[in-house]
């Protein structure tokens, strides 16, 4: 079994000051699952800093709606803490439930009077890289797709951004699969991209090439904002191919299509983790009720 000390990142941890503005902090991130670490003593070495919390787009922009000029210290997220004696099952469950792909790691406290010492970060990508060669990922993608309970959510390329935002807010998903009238895959629309876009006039002009208010944006079509470059696989391929694409291309998901290019499913980092949990001992239960309430 993997030792957590082997996958802790201790250097080059992306951090911001608690006095920085949220807009500045979020400009350093690219997906809703990323995280910036916030310390009281920014200039000190990581192991001597006092950890305050993180900034995460999902919690700051999607679950909450903080203005861009809010100071980081007022919109901190307090994620689950990982200690070095945690099992891999528990770590993976915390990554899944928190919807955050970077979690802080602390040294085990041996005596009550000792203070927690920040050691570094464990990322979803680092955990995945140590799972990819397991025999279970030789299974066909079809097995994972059939095990998913939530139906695939899609939107037409001609639909409005207003409709897309409504779906995002009701379902709390982070991406929508975009199709044309023939039900064929056209691209992917990211909720994080839209929310960031709505919050920044400069990005509105950069992406659309035109000025306008939010009402104008809502009336525009999905096809003007979706990402056309999408990585795909057929359900007959082994799971490790999806694994390799996610790791090598540094993406969050792979779209599964049939012979006629119709989307039939999507595989995410979360799905790969859940497949591991289901195959290698079932869902690990050692997660506190407190964290379940915070991160559900």
From TrEMBL:
SMART domains with a match to the protein in the record: CBS
Alphabetically ordered keywords of this record: CBS domain
Residue ranges annotated for the CBS domain, each copy included: 72-140, 148-206, 226-283
InterPro entries to which the protein is assigned, alphabetical: CBS_dom, CBS_dom_sf, Diverse_CBS-Domain
SUPFAM superfamilies given in the database record: CBS-domain pair
Stated name of the protein: CBS domain-containing protein
Organism name: Candidatus Roizmanbacteria bacterium CG22_combo_CG10-13_8_21_14_all_35_9
